[in-house]
Amino acid sequence: MKKMLLTAAVVFSSLIASAQFMVTADLDLEDFDAENITETTNFGFGYTLNDTWTVGAIIMGEGVHEGETEAEHADHDDEDFRLFVRYNWNESIYLTANTSTEDFSDNLRLGAGYSFAAFGSFYVEPNYTIDLEADDSDERNGSFKLGLAYRF
Fold first, then answer.
1. Would strands 142-151 and 53-59 be described as parallel, antiparallel, or unpaired?
2. CATH 2.40.128 fits 19-151, yes or no
3. Which one of 2, 19, 86, 123 is least enclosed by Cβ atoms within 10 Å?
4. What is the mean pLDDT of residues 63-84?
5. CA distances from 108 to 3, 33, 70 (A)
6. Can you tell me the distance from the alpha carbon of 47 to that of 89, in angstroms, rounded to the nearest whole number?
7. Please, which residues have CB within 8 angstroms of residue 103's CB and are 6 or more apart in sequence?
């Protein structure tokens, strides 16, 4: 039992020692308002598993979510955060998927973005995401956002 605990402790500490975290913010350019920036910005925190994969959570802004009308937003007004996974295709281009914690497949959004280092560990990441399923009017809502990320 002691050997198993010691092995688990060594594995866990090596994961933490080599871990890379990222903090993100996606600014909604269509509804951007500098006075109410928290209402139009989604903030996220991710854990980089390796050079290719990142997983994390996005805290949704208080305003209208990702291309929705007020009526559509009222349907899931209690949505506080979304889970995301990100695949780094190469050094600059990434693919992403995010979903709510309820009805995973019904609320899935897919997207792509371009990441470039502005300075040091600060990155600018324009991205586009689109709903996987069409809404009631057979349209897929998409949104273009300006992402900002800091990796540490």
1. unpaired
2. yes
3. 2
4. 58
5. 42, 27, 19
6. 17
7. none
Question: Which is nearest to 56 in space by CA: 91, 98, 18, 25?
Answer: 98
Give domain limits for the chain: 19-151
pLDDT at 39 over 80: no
4's CB contacts (< 8 A; 6+ apart) are none
35: DSSP letter: G
Measure the CA–CA gap between 77 and 71, rounded to whole angstroms: 10
- Direct distance between the N- and C-terminal alpha carbons of the chain, in angstroms, rounded to an integer: 35
| Residue 6 in tokens | 């010691």
Q: Which residues of 68-80 are buried (b: 16+ CB within 10 A; e: fewer)?
A: beeeeeeeeeeee
Q: Which two tokens stand for residue 137?
A: 């009017």
